Amino acid sequence: MNDRNLIYKIGITLIKGIGVIIAKQVLDALGDVSLLFTEKKQLLERIPGISRKIIAEIHHPDVLRRAEKEIVFIEKNKITPLFIRDSDYPERFRDCVDSPLLLYFKGNADLNAAKIVSIVGTRHATTYGKEVSERLMADIAKNYPKTLIISGLAYGIDIYVHRAALKRNLPTIGVLAHGLDRIYPPAHRNTAIEMLANGGLLTDFMSETNPDRQNFVKRNRIVAGIADCTVVVESAEKGGALITANIADSYNRDVFAVPGKTTDTYSIGCNSLIKYKKAALITCADDLFREMCWNQTAVKQAVQRSIFVETSPDEQVILNLLSQQDNLQLNTIAIETDWPVSRLATLLFDLEMKGLIRCHPGGLYRLL
Predict the structure, then answer these.
(1) Virtual CA dihedral for 167, 172, 178, 182, nearest 10 degrees?
(2) Residue 142: phi, psi to the nearest 5?
(3) Is the dihedral of CA 358, 276, 136, 93 positive or negative?
(4) What is the pLDDT of residue 39?
């Protein structure tokens, strides 16, 4: 592994007293994470949020010692660490306020795939929930076979979604509430291994981390944050799936719920999401495609925009790029067009004002 700063990237996550918010402020102030460990005390004291007590924690010998141990584990098990400033960090998640500084990934999926859907639900899946999961995977695979499917590898809807995705050759990622040195629940180990060949396993927890209760809530923000939308298939009145849906809503992501009978225990949560307009109702994959505007062809989009809204040649270049790929970040558009970022920022703003594009969390631009 050639990342000489990896020890510091892991180290910053181990410093007591530095949470994600302060850590991001420190990175903005210093620019290079290594400076946190190598700069003089006087400079560090000038950074907002860094107290003398935290400086003492930074230089605690256990911090970098534990980071070195984790690097050995990473290299031995061919795990890919994804730091928040790395180009392969999930773009949709990067600008979320509580996105972790470091993710650990094992697998072969593209975490910045053009289409990513999170599907979650109760651990007590009914026959109805299983059938819905199967149909969703079958229809997504038929229409958009490169869609990346995200879930939590838990009992119930999660594992049925993963297995249905694998059966139809859809890439699927399990987001874990523990380190990559174990699988929980153990009964899903074979499925997890199968996912490594077409998808993978993702976590922000280091090795030797147990699947403690509080970790599952923390895990849910990743499920919600790296996807374009979250679908709740079944849920009781309370549960992790509803927490994930609420997190997705707070990130301004699309949230969908599959309705059920008002008398069914594991449809109460979904019906409630729909009732209080926390989620849009879907009954099949076609509803999802329509709500996400996936069933509008690129050609139709370009033609309709050129007819009804006056655009400049430069603006049309951007629209054509976005019609070919669902989500593009500013830097990617700059590379594709070979235009300066300052010029692009103005063009993108004008297109937003014309109601042709929208900037989503993570700085991703998408056609409306």
Answers:
(1) 40
(2) -70, -40
(3) positive
(4) 83
Beta bridge partners of 203: 104
Q: Are 16 and 59 a contacting pair, CB within 8 Å?
A: no
- Per-residue burial over 243-253, b if 16 or more Cβ lie within 10 Å, else e, is bbbbbbbebeb
Residue with tokens 């090795």: 207
What strands, in cross-sheet order, belong to the sheet with 328-329? Answer: 328-329, 364-367, 357-360
Query: Is the separation of the CB atoms in 28 and 14 below 8 Å?
Result: no
| Segment holding 316, helix H or strand E | helix 313-324
User: Using an 8 Å Cβ cutoff, are 324 and 52 in contact?
Assistant: no
User: What pLDDT score was predicted for residue 297?
Assistant: 46
Q: What is the pTM of this model?
A: 0.80
Radius of gyration of the chain (CA): 22
Map tokens 């329509």 to a residue: 290
Query: Which one, of 80, 105, 100, 97, lies nearest residue 14 by Cα?
Result: 100
d(CA 195, CA 200) in angstroms, rounded, equals 5
200 vs 215: CA distance, rounded Å? 19
What are the pLDDT digits (tens) for 121-148?
A: 999 999 999 999 999 999 999 999 999 9
Select from 247, 238, 246 the least CA-distant residue to 123. Answer: 238
How far apart are alpha carbons 225 and 86 in whole angstroms?
A: 17
Nearest to 101 by CA among 109, 92, 93: 93
Q: Which amino acid is residue 361, in one-letter code?
A: P
Please report, in tens digits, the pLDDT of each residue of the chain (368 residues total).
567 789 999 999 999 988 888 888 888 888 888 888 888 887 887 887 788 888 888 989 899 999 999 999 999 999 999 999 898 999 999 888 899 999 999 999 999 999 999 999 999 999 999 999 999 999 999 999 999 999 999 999 999 999 999 999 999 999 999 999 999 999 999 999 999 999 999 999 999 999 999 999 999 999 999 999 999 999 999 999 999 999 999 999 999 999 999 999 999 999 999 999 999 999 999 999 999 988 754 434 444 554 556 888 888 888 888 888 767 888 788 888 888 888 888 888 888 888 888 887 667 788 88
How many whole angstroms separate alpha carbon 15 and alpha carbon 258?
42
DSSP state of 125: -
